[in-house]
Amino acid sequence: MDSKVMAGRTGLRTAPDAMPRTTFGDHGQTLVFLHANGYPPACYRPLIAKLAVGHHVIAVLQRPLWPGAKPASLNSWSVLSDDLLQLVAEEHDGPVIAVGHSLGATVALRAALREPDWFAALVLIEPVLYPTHVMLMWNLVRALGVGYRLHPMIQGALKRRRTFDSLDRVYEAYRSRRVFRHFSDDNLQAYIDGMTTPTAGGHRLVYSTQWEARVYYTGLWNDWDLWKGIPDLKVPTLIIRGAESDTFWSSTAEAVRARNSRIKVVTIPAATHLAPLERPGEVARLCVQELTEIAPG
After folding, report:
1. According to the model, what pLDDT value does residue 8 have?
2. CATH class of the structural domain 3-294
3. Which residues, other chains included, contact 64 with Cβ-Cβ below 8 Å and sequence gap of 6+?
């Protein structure tokens, strides 16, 4: 793929010369993994390790994890899809598999709607895809200038503790929280290790809380293109959702199926929006099983 063509299609070269990433596996078809908002790729170590058995996995660090990147530079998630397309255009001669979680799933979907020939398959885990009436409500909230105050996730992100003296104490505190009820001990430890980095006095979050809030604020409001494009999406696509999801609702799954019967939706029991962190083995099994059928290497 010609990077000059890519620059012309997006109208903007947004990413650094080499997008930050970590690679796993050295054989098989290229699989690009895109993380969720607030969750660095290292949090997904159990899942990525399984995917890397038969694929060359590129775990991309999206814009919030770029050194020196400013939250104010993001006004729309479309820019993150530009970043993904730039990576695909500059680094790979053939179509790639894209696997994304939450934010990453939505970024991958929009990129594939723009350039379907560049993707062999999509696995969208808990994509952020809400009905149009929710988008209309969020547009009104933004127009009134109270988005940062009323978004249910933003204030929690901004108030989140950023430094820790001991990861053992973090584990003890998290183990009893309901949000982590479906995490095994090992998967919870992997999550904690992945979201933090050592400092001179202990540990700190890898993912900036200001960036996390900005991503929440800039999402959803202009997602009309996703619903418009879904009926014509021809890239083989699997959507994985948690049965207890508060993001990709069962009604949304039905709406997607009604618009495009080629899209397969699978629900994992005893899982929430954090399914790939809670149930990495089950998610990996579904990915490999479906990709073997729809995107054979």
Report:
1. 35
2. alpha beta
3. 37, 71, 74, 207, 208, 211, 212, 214, 215
